TrEMBL record:
Keyword check for Transcription: yes
Cytoplasm found in the keyword field: no
Pfam family name, one: Peripla_BP_3
Protein's name in the database: LacI family DNA-binding transcriptional regulator
Lineage: Bacteria, Bacillati, Actinomycetota, Actinomycetes, Bifidobacteriales
Domain named HTH lacI-type: residues: 4-58
CDD domains linked: HTH_LacI
InterPro entries: HTH_LacI (IPR000843), LacI/GalR-like_sensor (IPR046335), Lambda_DNA-bd_dom_sf (IPR010982), Peripla_BP_I (IPR028082)
Keywords: DNA-binding, Repressor, Transcription, Transcription regulation
Amino acid sequence: MNYVTIKDVAHEAGVSVPTVSQVLNDTGRISAATRQRVLEAVRRLDYIPNSAAISMRSSSTKTVGILVPDISNSYFSYLISLITRELLVEGYVCMIGSSSESLEGQDRFLRSLLTQRIDGAILIPQGTASRGLKKFVASGLPLVILDRQVRDLPDAGRIPVIDADPRPGIKAAIESVKARGHSRIGFIHGPTAKSPNLLEREQMFVDIAGSRLGNRNALVSEHVSALSAIREPLSRKVDTFMFGYSPDALEAIRYFRLQGLKIGVDVSIISFDDIPVFELTAPSISVISQQQGMMGDYGVRMLSSLMQGRALGEQTEDAFGRIRIPTLFIDRESVGETCTVA
């Protein structure tokens, strides 16, 4: 691990180590100019003041950091509950933070983690390699990325990434709705620029639905507001909707009910993310499951291996870089026979 030390800061600022210590601890009589030089050196080197940094390299605290994009999202809260349960069995405690789906929030939490004595981390990051994420990777701490791909991540080949392959679930879902007489399907999702995973789901949908139903019958609607994305396909006689993100599906369910449309009769719904409410609502919602249990289990096992310095069994180097969990279509009540939307 290439840690920046207090000696590095002193050398960069052209002062002594005690002077740097006094500036960082706000003690002693230090001139404003010297203080400014030290603080600028700290920023340039991205030095993290941490009295426990040396011991962090050599001792275990049985603590794991966990970054989640949105703790209020049922999909992520359920996944994190599975992970923390398994880590507890392994004897670890967890420090959990939410990025609130922002790079700024993500980097703030990651920087905080680097000031703590943690043994490793499981991250569900944003889709872009932010400065904070790059810094975290460079620290050399054991790290596993779950659920999401990250563009332009340095040393990506050595970091385990465990996410879901959307193809099997989308393929099974399309074949199921086609067998029931549906011929026009809309795929609704948020901005793909922020999410490589959403972009991949869209591409898989276009490929599979286009080949089985014809390109004119496979509509894609990207949105800032889910409701605005729903209205246009409805006007074009789309009666089956696939949602790439579960909160959008929940919003659509409310909208359809307000419009007097019966789910599974007038309009059919399939959503990514097998969250508990989809199974409990009436009618229950058909889903493309990312198999969170399997994803979380792989993540904990791989992180545990990294933290204990063990080789990951017989995994090849490529498999070490990325493991894909096959998605699974779970057919429930929200997909009926050919619907009757006007």
